[in-house]
From TrEMBL:
This is MerR family transcriptional regulator. One of its GO terms (cellular component) is cytosol. InterPro entries: Cro/C1-type_HTH (IPR001387), Cupin_2 (IPR013096), Lambda_DNA-bd_dom_sf (IPR010982), RmlC-like_jellyroll (IPR014710), RmlC_Cupin_sf (IPR011051), TransReg_Diox_bact_type (IPR050807). It comes from Anoxybacter fermentans. Residues 7-61 form the HTH cro/C1-type domain. Keywords: DNA-binding. One of its GO terms (molecular function) is DNA-binding transcription factor activity.
Amino acid sequence: MQLGQKIRHKRQEKGLSLTELAEKIGRTPSFLSQIERGLAEPSITSLRKIADALDVPIFYFLLDTEEHNPVVRRNERKVLNFPESHLTFELISPDLNRKMEIMEARLEPGASTCDEPLTHPGEECMLVLQGKMKIEIGEEVYYLEPGDSIYYFSMIPHRVTSVGDEDLVWISCMTPPAF
């Protein structure tokens, strides 16, 4: 559904006429009619006013729900791996254009996520699903097993190492997305 169609649909759903919505946002009915018919594009300011008047978040009009399916099927995850690396990421969140990034990571026994501890903006939380994790965060070292989790500020240099006999598998949630 196009932007104008979404606005018309929501306006009609709320039982508002073009004139009533135009009054709420301080514009003319003609202006709204052109937007609804796809003949004009509203500015971001006008779109915010329309969203407020219709009591929906602005992203309601900006996201195409067909392209941004909230469901990610296990067999349809995007797989991210590095050349000659023992580390694999599967994206659990729908894409990398969100405010949060959720991944399932897999690391072979004895391998580390990087040679030297790395940093990135934001915060991160990890939940170990399988194997044993050694995580260095700054000067601190922590050991985690299945069911254990850790939360830290990712601006502090950090590195994960798989220290068990089987692959280390964990869920990582980062905000903002860093991948």
